[in-house]
């Protein structure tokens, strides 16, 4: 007895991810560590926006390409972020655990993000908060994980991670958490879209048929 090999069409996703936060929070370092697997202390400040591509073999049937947009820390004060944010499906907001003022800016970055980009159903795009440079002395709320959990829940973050680009702490884990949420949203939105199509199809039936009557002209 012989069995035909089952072949499943591999899904290929391209997702635009924003990496935002104050100047010097470590956004570029995180991206370099995640994409290129290296770290250096010597980075020039990003001007405007920079890009990187990360390819993930998520599972046997899913290939994911992440287009990471490294947005300059001062860009929230300009008018270009609406252009940069367009069509993004997920974001990281990064702050520096050694500088409390970068954490104080997080809510402003989140508000700016939510006001300028949404999913197709109008809901906010998933956003993961990164408490970066955790290899150094931490200041402020980040020293209290339970309070950080509450902060993220109140401000609409998917979750948060302490990260270190220098020591490669939780970079992959944070990215995987964001991708998992994006895939979940993708599935839900596709299901809702199919339901809407069914409703449209039903509503397009001839009125005589819906009333159980047939017209013989």
From TrEMBL:
SUPFAM superfamilies: P-loop containing nucleoside triphosphate hydrolases. It is a lipid-anchor. InterPro entries: P-loop_NTPase, Rab29/Rab38/Rab32, Small_GTP-bd, Small_GTPase. GO terms for molecular function: GTP binding; GTPase activity. Keywords: GTP-binding, Lipoprotein, Membrane, Nucleotide-binding, Prenylation. Signal peptide: none annotated. It is found in: Membrane. GO terms for cellular component: endomembrane system; melanosome; membrane; mitochondrion; trans-Golgi network. The keyword Lyase does not apply. PANTHER family: RAB FAMILY, RAS-RELATED PROTEIN RAB. Belongs to the small GTPase superfamily. Rab family. This is Ras-related protein Rab. It comes from Tribolium castaneum (Red flour beetle).
């Amino acid at each position: 007895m012989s069995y035909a090999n089952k072949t499943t069409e591999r899904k290929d996703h391209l997702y635009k991810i924003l990496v935002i936060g104050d100047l010097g929070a470590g956004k570029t370092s995180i991206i370099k560590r995640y994409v290129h697997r290296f770290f250096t202390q010597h980075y020039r400040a990003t001007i405007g926006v920079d890009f990187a591509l990360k390819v993930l073999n998520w599972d046997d049937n899913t290939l994911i390409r992440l287009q990471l947009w490294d947005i300059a820390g001062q860009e929230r004060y300009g008018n270009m972020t609406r252009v940069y944010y367009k069509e993004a499906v997920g974001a990281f907001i990064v702050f520096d655990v050694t500088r409390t003022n970068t954490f104080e800016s997080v809510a402003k970055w989140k508000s700016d993000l939510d006001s300028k980009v949404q999913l197709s159903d109008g809901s906010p795009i998933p956003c993961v908060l990164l408490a970066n440079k955790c290899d150094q002395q931490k200041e402020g709320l980040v020293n209290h994980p339970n309070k950080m959990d509450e902060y993220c829940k109140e401000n609409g973050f998917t979750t948060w991670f302490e990260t270190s680009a220098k020591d490669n702490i939780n970079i992959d884990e944070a990215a995987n958490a964001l991708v998992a949420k994006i895939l979940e949203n993708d599935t839900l939105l596709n299901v809702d879209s199919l339901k809407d199509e069914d409703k449209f199809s039903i509503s397009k039936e001839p009125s005589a048929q819906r009333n159980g009557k047939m017209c013989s002209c």
